[in-house]
Structure formats: C-alpha cells, structure tokens
Amino acid sequence: MFKNNLPFLSFGKLRGSIGTTGNDQISDYQYLASYGTSNVYDGIASLIPNRIANSGYSWETTHKQELALELGFLSNRLMFTGAWYRHVSSNQLIAYKIPYLTGFSTYQANSPATIQNTGFELDLNARILDSKQFHWRSSINFTLPKNKLVSFPNLAGSSYAFNYVMGQDLSVYRGLHFLGVNPQTGLATFEDVNHDGVISTPGDLVVLGKTSPELFGGWTNDLSWESFDLSFSWEFVKRNYPGYQPLLGGYPQNDPSFVTQRWEKPGDVTNIPRASIDLSSSQYNSSQLLNANYARLKNAALSYTLPVAVAEKIRLKTFKIYLNAENLFVIANKDRFDPELSGNSIGIPPLKTIVLGLKASF
Amino acid sequence: MLAGSVLFSCKKMATSEVPPNQLTNDKVFTDTTSLTAATAGLFTQLATVDANLVRNLSLYTDELKTTAVSATNTEFSNSSLTVTNSSVLSIWQNLYRTIYMANAIINGLKISTLPDGAKNTALGESRFIRGYCYLYLTRLFGDVPLLLTTDVKVNAAAVKTNSTLVLQQVISDFSIAKQLLTTDYPLNNGKTTANTYAALAYLSLASLEAGQYNRADSAATAVINSGKYSLLSDLSKICTENNSEAIFQLWNQNGFSPLNSVAITGVPPNQITGSLYSAFTSSDKRKNIWISSITVSGTTYYFPYKYRQRTVTSGLNAEYTTYMRLDEVYLIRSEARARNSDLSGALADINIIRNRAGLPSLALITKGDILKANLLERQLELFNENGSRFFDLKRFGLIDQTLSPLKPLWKATGRLFPIPQTEILNDPNLTQNQGY
Considering the entire predicted model, what is its pTM? Predict the structure, then answer.
C-alpha cells in the first residue's frame, strides 16, 4: 500500500526497541575487604589492604528505548538512517568517589544518580556517480548526544556535589570567573562569588560550561576514475574544552607562544597574567574553557594503478603508486592547544604524516 | 549483617561465600604469620610519607633551599601553599591510609582468637603508628577528622575534630602502645618497629606538644634511664642501622635513606640555608660532620650530611631513615623541665647535648635564656629531621617573626597547611583552614 503511494521510495523501514539491561562488568567479591601483598619490610613480605568493604550494593539497571527510520531513494543510491535513543541508567555500579581520609579514593558502590542519555544519530550514504569510468561514493554521519542528571538524592551532601548539577550535563566544568588582568599588578582577578573578601575554592567556583561534545561526526569519500583512486575523510566535533594553562614563573619549561603576550609592566592591558612566583593567577578559570570546535582532514589517499595490460608488458603482475596523508590540516581555534589534545596539558598533537609509496609484484 | 546480605543477593548464583583466592580480613586476623605481615605493612606504608614530609618542611622553614623547580617545590620554598599542592595531598593521603591500616588491625583483632603475645604486638604497633600519624596530622593541619573505625560510610562524611581532642587520642594511643609493647623490638631485633621505649619517646613528645610537662618529663626519663640507649661519640654514625642512639628507624632495603642529600656530581639539589649554617659556632663538631660542602665553578654549596650513603650499602655503614634518637628525648625533657621551672634539670640536659658536640657547658640562670638555648640546640641538633623546626617554631610562638623576614609571601595563617582541595570536594562536611 505504502509502496504504491510513495513511488520515490525504493526502501523503507521503521524499527523500534525497548528493554532493560543490567551490568556484569565488575569484579567478584567487591563487597569484602581484602589484603594483598606489598613490599618486603625488614625480611617480612608485608600485607596491605587493597579494598574497602561494602556489604550493600545491588543491581544496576538501564532502560533503553530506540526508534529509527531507514529510507532508500533512487534505487537505493541514496540511503538515509535516522535514529533517536533514550537510555535511563540508575543504581549504576561504579567506583564511587570517597575522600582519601577513608584510606582509599574509591569503593564499589551503587551510584545514587539517575542519568538520562538521549540523542539523534543521522547517517546518509550516497552513490553520487556510478558510471563505467567514474565512481563517487560519499557518506556523512552526525551524532547529537545529550545527557543530564535526572536525580541525585542529597547531591549537595555527597562527594559529587562539585561534579554534578541537577538537570545539567554530567561534564559540567567549574572554575573561577575570570574578570581580567589587573593592569597595575599583572595578576589575574576573579569574581568573589560568595562575597567573603577572598578568592578561594570551592566557594568561588562557578559552572563554566560542559566539556562533552554537542555534535560529532564524519564525512568520507571514495572516488575513482579509470586507474586513479582518491579517498579522503573528515572528522568534526563541536564542543568546549579546557585549554592549556601555563604556570608562568612556576617552573621553566616550553610554553605555547601566546605567553609572549603576557603582562610585563604596569599599564599593559592583556588577558595573559604576568610571570610570577605567586601562582594564584594560574587557578582554573573561565578564560581557559575555550571553543574547541574543529574539522580535521583525518586522511587522504591518492593512488594510480597501472592497467594490467600495460603492466604485463613490463613483466609485472601489478604496479601501483600511491600517496597517503594523515592529519593534513585542521580548521580550529589553535591559540592554546590542538583541539584533540586532552585539555590542560602540553602534549604532541596528532602527527601529520605523508607517505609516498610504490607497490609492485612480479 | 555481612553474611545476611550475601545470602540475600546471591542465593542462586554464589557457590562459595568466601573467595578462595583472596586474602579477606577474617583470614588475616586468624593467622599469626598474616598478622605479622599486616603489621609490617604499616611501616611499609609509613615510609611513603617521609620523603615528602621531612624535606618539604625543611624548605617551608629556614633549613633548606632547593634547586628543584616545580610548582609544588616553589610553594614550599615560598612558605605559601595552595589547596592543590600535590605534596600536601600526598602527606595527608598517606598518613590517613596508614591510619586506615592501623584501624583495620585494631578493629580486626577484637574478635580474633590468636594468642595474646601476637595480638599485643600487633595492637601495640598499630596504636603506635596511629598515634604517630595523628600527631603529624594535627601539628600540620590543626583540627582534622579523628577516625577510629574503618566504616567507609561514617568516614566519608567525617567532620573535623578539635586539635586538643586529637592530641588526647595521640597521647592515649602512645600510652596504650607503651603497655602493649615490650622492651624488645619485635622485628629482627633491629629498631625498625616500635618497642615500649619508642612509644614512651613519642608519648613524651606528644605530651610536650599538649603542654603536659610532667608526663613529658617522666616518659623521657623512662627512656633515658632504661640504659638501652646511649649517645654516640662518633657523630657521623647517627643514622646507621641499629646504632645505640637510635630509638626508632625505618628499614631501607638498600642500606641508604631516601632522605640523603648528597649530590653525585655538581650542585646539590638541597642546600643548607645561610641562616642555619651561620647558627653553628666554628667549634661545633656538628657543623663539619653533619654538613658537607662541594665547590662548583668557584661557589661553595653546603648540604645536609647526616645521611651519608646514597648507593647500596651493607654492614655497619648501612643507613636507615631515623625517626627518633636519644638526643631528641634529652631535648624534649629539657624543654618540659624548663617550662615546668625545673631550670637546673633543663640546663643539665642541654649541656649533655652541647658537650657531645664538643661545646662547653652553659651556665644560664633565667627560664627565658634556658628556653632560648633549648630552641637553638634543637635547631642545631635536629635540623632536617622529622620537620622538627616547623613544630618547634610554632610551639615557641616564634614562627611569624622567624619566617616573615625570609619569605615575602609568608602569612600568619601559614602555621597550618591547607586541607587538600580534593578532600573538601569529596567530603562536603570538611571545612578549609583559615587563609586558604
């Protein structure tokens, strides 16, 4: 019936699922305290505790719902999949954070949090050109994930009080609110949120944003024309992420070039604090949670294969010459970091590599 | 309660309630060998504290300067700590972890059927270690959570306990340890665990900190009169293993201590400050034996030389990290006596230490002069050991006037360390110390 009324459609499918799952990815006997062997002390192989007891944990549950639509057009040369999902997790079995004064940093327990993950996944596949000499296939996908803390009884009185905010993303990030660099002293100034006259943490911390991506995806292409092949793929992410914070004056090491714009003499107007043994300017603040959107050409490959007839004339079975490149370039705000580097550290960004090769078999 | 929930939640699946391949608490506390091993674990854990503690406290006061450059070190050198200092967190974390281990033994042995001898040794060592940890915690951080159980639900929400009460618990722990332990050292007869005199020496120190001078005096006297210890005439041997002056040392596998400051070549990373160096008179033997120097490109650098070994050493020259020596017991008693107005007794103890260093006896008369002489002697005798200088300056009320001329960023609130930020975040009932 649908088929006759929708002639432009060559394929159609509506699917949905609903279910409840648990989790068995935890080790055995986590409810008992136990000891393990440690270093020798004066001739005795010593024993030290390696686990704290928790006799009261139970199953975790995740309710999953998914709804998806798959469509094909033009004899399936164009395929579209759109999916929506919602996962609600509660009683998650996690390494629950506890203060070090308990002797440990975590223990196996049920998290009191109820967390909802929802999102859309969109996927488009196309055979754009499909002639005898020329082929072009392209596919693009997007994911738009969202998560939020639905409930957490007594959040304020828990060890997650400064990690989570009710109703918000789990990756909310807190720091001081940066008000600029004092042109006279060169030190960073921050907002005294609790009005107690001093800048202190956690009292003056505010939610700066979230670090989980709002959107990520990729775009891949394969093209061929006679004996030439070309393929390339892009990767893109939209999100904010903590940038590198130099400890100017703290210790000598290489810093990104933006440190040359730092405050140097009274009257300088800049957003980069002075180099000082007073490290208060380096505390985590709103100037460091930056736009980390990027689109990167992850790889590109071009190759030429000698036609078999020609190759045989020069007594070769196959002959191929190719050029492969990775991380050729990125479109991003690169002032403080490479967007793929994990946050507040100096590291090596993804390497740009270009390989020229020749492959022949006799 | 435990067994009940096990049966309830695993009725169908579990075939065995006790893991065969894991060493659960009930097994540890029903076997003498395991119990001894768990007791030895206390000392292994305690050894993780000292490298951070002693050297950083020397930087924090006026004993050492360092060539090491990191945010952590710079904060100690400036005597201006931040709440995220990783070394402060490490000290806190390791002291509390040691306390957890001591509490696990003390509570685990409540239902144990092991013979009294083994039990008393383990309990005595645990009380000693717990007392030591709380003594340092409260002297560094002031009011701190006083945890005496291993119950994670209770401990994770702990509030601060007044430092006076913490010190009371310390005194109680050392007093009980003193009774449970014997005059022999339980392990290999070296001094690498506590005996009754080690407990008495620390009881004396804790009592001095608490202003209980009679007990400080009597506990110190019990150690001095025991005849088990004597001051070495050879000052170069004070950190050697099992020497006659040592009361409590930590075992080092390779016969040298992580606290040594000897440079292999070039500029030593940890150097004696000018103010400490000039506090010694030229006839003081300690000046040339406990301090060494090296000249690099025409500049002479002085460094602590109490620990002399920095490579694998065995035999009589092997060195252990030394926590308590008889000289300190004399100085504790001297101070307690001076504050109790037993001036001749106080002066006699100072002179014992001075004479050993090749210095003439003093003939002081006033209480103020004797206390001043005591503080100077503590500075010269105990530098770069146990962070004594920091605690002494605080006890004598001289920390501000001593450090503010040397450290531009010094604030009076620097007398207490900051509670590590992550602890405040993970235990919302904890409050930060003033000034941080």
Answer: 0.84
